[in-house]
What we know:
- With 109 residues, the protein is α/β, with parallel strands linked by helices.
- 39% of the residues lie in helices and 28% in strands.
- The protein has helices at 22-38, 56-71, 83-91, and strands spanning 4-8, 11-15, 19-20, 43-47, 53-54, 75-81, 99-102.
- The termini are far apart.
Amino acid sequence: MEQLYRIEGVNLTVQMPAELDHPNSERLKKETDYYLENYHIQHIIFDFRNTDFMDSSGVGVVAGRYRLLDLRGGSMEAIHVSERIDKILHLSGMHKIMEIHREEKEDGQ
Length: 109
């Protein structure tokens, strides 16, 4: 699955892949760093709408982008986060460095 990136002003939205494993994490890291190096990005929005799996390499991608943004006074957030991904982000301490917005269930579930 190809990653989708959208720039709006100083915001970069990153559509996360279905599986955020080592191979996808390496590609995501390189592509996101390209935008950080070549555009004046101050805020990254990680969209987890389609993500079903995330391992420690995925956590590393998020943490590494935080370090780069923090140097410029930037910030990050995660949106459309499923319960499973939310647990991973909280266990890894990511809730301390970015806002996490849980995915809302349809039909009041």
